[in-house]
Amino acid sequence: MKLNKLTTEYTKNELALQDLSSNPIDQFEKWMQSAIDFPLENANAMTLSTSDKNHKVTSRIVLLKTYDKNGFVFFTNYNSSKAKAIKYNNQVSLSFAYLPQERQIIITGKAIKIPTPQSLKYFLSRPRGARIGAWSSQQSQVISSRSVLLSQVEKIKNKFANKEIPLPDFWGGFRVVPYEIEFWQGRKNRLHDRFIYKFKNKEWQCKRKSP
Ligand SMILES: Cc1cc2nc3c(=O)[nH]c(=O)nc-3n(C[C@H](O)[C@H](O)[C@H](O)COP(=O)(O)O)c2cc1C
């Protein structure tokens, strides 16, 4: 396979300091909206990277469900590998690859559990099947076959037959409170535009970085 032939010149867009919002959350909103309008599928899919107690780094995709000036929220199983890693080291990275737009966003921050009432509100908004799925999966554990999972689903269905499916105590959201957010726009000859916002002295400062 000749992967070295798979080169692309990035020429679709450019980014200058004067185009950027003074607040990176507003800038994030602009790029998220532009990705949705493009249209890009799964514009809210982001790669979450964590480092665990043995310094083992793992990346996986999760879905961004809400964001505001306080941070970026995703939902997961609190007993999963990612949640265990966060418990030990809450420093995480989130990245969005908007490749058809030749864009990348990288967020660095600290992950904290959101309050249970907020997780409950989101959980109850999910379809019944997804709520049963959350109860049924011991996320990240090794299982011997798919039938183990499916029999668990049946047990949960019976347990909550004709009842509301409650929020499992092992499931909820994390908010990633950012302290750095980088916007990357591909340019010709690999002379890309990169701008990094850093939160210092209670305000965001934005600087250009070398590609
Ligand atoms: C498009 C996509 C969206 C996903 N969204 C989520 C999500 O929102 N929450 C989640 O826990 N896992 C999500 N996953 C599954 C994770 O990538 C991962 O397999 C799972 O969370 C277990 O990760 P862990 O064992 O490292 O904790 C998603 C996977 C893909 C490909």
Topology:
Blueprint: H1 24-37, E1 45-51, E2 57-63, E3 66-68, E4 71-77, H2 81-88, E5 91-98, E6 103-113, H3 116-125, H4 128-136, H5 146-159, E7 171-185, E8 193-200, E9 203-209
Antiparallel strand pairs: 1-2, 1-5, 3-4, 4-7, 5-6, 6-7, 7-8, 8-9
Helix pairs in contact: 4-5
Bound molecules: flavin mononucleotide.
Flavin mononucleotide is lined by residues 42, 45, 58, 60-63, 74-76, 80-82, 139-140.
What overall geometry do the principal axes of the alpha carbons give? globular
* End-to-end separation: 28 Å
Low-confidence stretches: none
The CATH topology is Pnp Oxidase, Chain A
In helices, the fraction of residues equals 25-40%
- According to DSSP, the number of beta strands is 9
**How many helices?**
5
Overall residue-averaged pLDDT value: 97
